[in-house]
């Protein structure tokens, strides 16, 4: 058997860990030795209200199993309250090694019916919440030359989903955010990856049939999250899909494209004639930064 992956001496913050996926991640990390800050605002699925019970219940579960955890009830969606979440780790355990950005809500409506409030609150919780918690944690991770960040995106962002323009935009925004955190954190041994989960939780109970919700246990997603949070993880900037025993990697890639030697003379019709080649993904590659992509795009340009 492979060596056990453990988190002894490690401090983790899991946002939105009062239920669903966050709870499963927190329980798994704690069962393997991590000290865990269990954050949860405890509101309704649409982001209204608050309740200390869910976070406290998970802390009690962790402690009952012999683990170590502390609750925090702040919202990820404001800079001040997000700082308090990270501060809870510092005050109780002296550092933060692992951050799982998981808190989330839904305000599904077609764009025609979506209110500005529906847009703002979803962006605030998912995208700004991930930015705020990550920004608050980074100085401590840099200081210790160690950090593991897992942020939660969604297939709705990668591929689109009817009624989820707000959510999808926030979720792909999170993947974009992590792409740059990967670059900025590299020299401090900070790895930043993105999770694309599929699980039966209260968020999916509205769209999935009950028997599917039951089968898609959040616990099935957590092993890869724990791996991404471990010292063993060398991966950074990746998007990992996980659910129901399925694991995969999603990626943004770009086809080899077409180069016009004389851009001054090319016409709309010249471009139209090449659309098949332009849109072909045969021989597509991933770039590990915008610079690398731009270098390719400019590689045929004559610079004199
Ligand atoms: P969930 O509702 O069970 O968990 C989300 C938790 O976040 C809740 O406990 C909620 O109280 C908490 N939360 C909400 N707003 C908060 C805030 N402002 N501050 C702190 N905590 C807050 O749902 P889940 O399915 O476990 O979702 C977890 C994450 O996974 C979310 O980001 C969600 O968008 C994402 N996701 C889930 C699925 C899925 O299939 N379940 C698919 C794609 C993405």
Structural topology:
Layout: E1 11-14, H1 20-31, E2 35-39, H2 53-64, E3 68-72, H3 79-93, E4 98-101, H4 116-144, E5 147-152, H5 155-159, H6 165-185, E6 190-197, H7 210-215, H8 222-228, E7 239-243, E8 246-250, H9 268-273, H10 275-279, H11 290-297
Parallel strand pairs: 1-2, 1-4, 2-3, 4-5, 5-6, 6-7
Antiparallel strand pairs: 7-8
Quote the CATH topology of the largest domain.
Rossmann fold
Q: Output the structural class.
A: alpha/beta
Q: CATH homologous superfamily name of the largest domain?
A: NAD(P)-binding Rossmann-like Domain
Q: List the secondary-structure elements in sequence, H or E.
A: EHEHEHEHEHHEHHEEHHH
pLDDT < 50 runs, ≥5 residues: none
C-alpha-based Rg, rounded: 21 Å
The CATH architecture of the largest domain can be named as: 3-Layer(aba) Sandwich
User: Tell me about the biggest sheet?
Assistant: 8 strands, mixed
Instruction: Supply the CATH class of the largest domain.
Output: Alpha Beta
**How many structural units, i.e. domains?**
2
Shape summary: globular
Count up the helices. 11
Separation of the first and last Cα atoms:
60 Å
| Beta-strand proportion | 5-15%
Tell me the number of strands.
8
For the biggest β-sheet, the strand order reads 3-2-1-4-5-6-7-8
Compounds present?
Answer: nicotinamide-adenine-dinucleotide
In helices, the fraction of residues equals: 40-55%
**What integer is the average pLDDT?**
97
Describe the 3D structure.
41% of the residues lie in helices and 14% in strands. The chain is an alpha/beta fold and 304 residues long. It has two domains: 11-250, NAD(P)-binding Rossmann-like Domain (Rossmann fold); 253-304. The mean pLDDT is 97. Bound molecules: nicotinamide-adenine-dinucleotide. The site of nicotinamide-adenine-dinucleotide has 33 residues, from helix 1 and helix 4.
């Amino acid at each position: 058997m492979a060596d056990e992956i453990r988190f002894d001496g490690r401090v983790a913050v899991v946002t939105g860990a009062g239920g669903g996926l966050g709870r499963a991640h927190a329980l798994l990390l704690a069962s393997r030795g991590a000290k865990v800050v269990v954050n949860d605002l405890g509101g309704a699925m649409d982001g209204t209200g608050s309740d200390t019970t869910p976070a406290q219940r998970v802390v009690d579960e962790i402690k009952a199993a012999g683990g170590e955890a502390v609750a925090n009830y702040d919202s990820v969606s404001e800079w001040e309250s997000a700082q308090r979440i990270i501060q809870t780790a510092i005050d109780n355990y002296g550092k933060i090694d692992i951050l799982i950005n998981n808190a989330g809500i839904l305000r599904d409506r077609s764009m025609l019916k979506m209110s500005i409030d529906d847009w703002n609150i979803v962006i605030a919780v998912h995208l700004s919440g991930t930015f705020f918690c990550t920004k608050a944690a980074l100085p401590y991770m840099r200081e210790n030359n160690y950090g593991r960040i897992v942020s939660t995106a969604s297939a709705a962002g990668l591929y689109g989903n009817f009624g989820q323009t707000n959510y999808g935009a926030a979720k792909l925004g999170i993947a974009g955010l992590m792409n740059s955190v990967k670059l900025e954190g590299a020299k401090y041994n900070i790895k930043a990856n993105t999770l694309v989960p599929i699980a039966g939780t209260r968020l999916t109970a509205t769209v999935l049939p009950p028997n599917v919700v039951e089968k898609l246990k959040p616990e099935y997603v957590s092993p890869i999250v724990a791996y991404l949070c471990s010292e063993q993880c060398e991966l950074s900037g990746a998007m990992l899909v996980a659910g129901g025993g399925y694991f995969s990697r999603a990626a943004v890639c770009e086809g080899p494209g077409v180069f016009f030697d004389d851009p001054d003379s090319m016409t709309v019709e010249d471009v139209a004639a090449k659309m098949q080649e332009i849109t072909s993904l045969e021989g597509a590659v991933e770039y590990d930064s915008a610079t690398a992509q731009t270098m390719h795009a400019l590689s045929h340009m004559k610079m004199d």
